[in-house]
Design a protein that fits this description.
Blueprint (H helix, E strand, L loop, with lengths): L11 H19 L1 H4 L2 H28 L5 H21 L5 H40 L1
Helix pairs in contact: 1-3, 1-5, 3-4, 4-5
The protein binds fe (ii) ion (2 copies).
Amino acid sequence: MKIDKKYETGVYWQDVQHGQMIDFYKQVLSRPSIARDPAMFSYSIGFLVMYADQHFKLEEAYMEKYNYPDTDTHTRHHREFIRELKAFKKKYTSYSDEAVSVLESKVGAWIKTHILENDQKLGAYLIRRQKEELLKS
Ligand SMILES: [Fe+2]
Ligand SMILES: [Fe+2]
């Protein structure tokens, strides 16, 4: 599914990966067969942690490549989110109303604050730097 326009950064790979993460998270919550099976629930959260970690590493590699000025703050947010997801996975080993509401608030806050603020700022910076590079070549 395509990411909602207001969450787009304009950088193709970022938008595709954000869309995949949001879709996957919504699927976990909306499919009782996944969510209510403890093994599937735990596997799904593990997958989300792994995917988020890989996505963050890619953003961090681009930040380094293009000397992004906010790298430290942005990277700190990534590490905090991974820590929170891992703590969630440890605490909630199966589906419950509480687990769902905690996951919704954590991922929801990440979408609202991290994508809408940090990632969109990073995306605009990367687009500008890549245009500058093209003009130079
Ligand atoms: Fe990010
Ligand atoms: Fe991101």
